[in-house]
Amino acid sequence: MYKGEEFMGKTTVVINDKLLQAAIEVIGAKSKKEAIEKGLRELVHKKNIEALRKELGTFDLDLTLAKLEKLRKEE
Questions:
Q1: How far is it, in rounded angstroms, from Cα 17 to Cα 23?
Q2: DSSP code of 33?
Q3: Is residue 33 part of a domain?
Q4: 31 — phi, psi (to 5°)?
């Protein structure tokens, strides 16, 4: 699990320029580094959510919108 920027290292990688440019444009990144870091954070986030869902499993929830609103008002 990613816990922040404890260590930053320099890494040289070969990346598809068109893919990287598309990522920069889509997320509005100001640099290649920003696009890569945001992409990695999003990947870690999605995998953590998948793992949590897998661990929790699924269950039936007998809760209507009206019941939910009532519970929220009671808080």
A1: 10
A2: H
A3: yes
A4: -155, 165
In a domain, 6, yes or no: no
SS3 63: coil
- The string of DSSP letters for 1-30 reads ---S-S----------HHHHHHHHHHHT-S
Domain of 26, in residue numbers: 17-74
- Does 50 fall in a domain? yes
For the chain, how many structural domains are there in total?
1
Burial of residue 35, with CB atoms counted within 10 A of its CB: 0-12 exposed, 13-18 middle, 19 or more buried: buried
Residue-by-residue pLDDT tens, the chain, 75 positions? 566 667 788 999 999 999 999 999 999 999 999 999 999 999 999 999 999 888 888 777 788 889 889 889 987
Could you give the C-alpha distances from 55 to 3, 43, 44, 63, in angstroms and in order? 20, 18, 16, 22
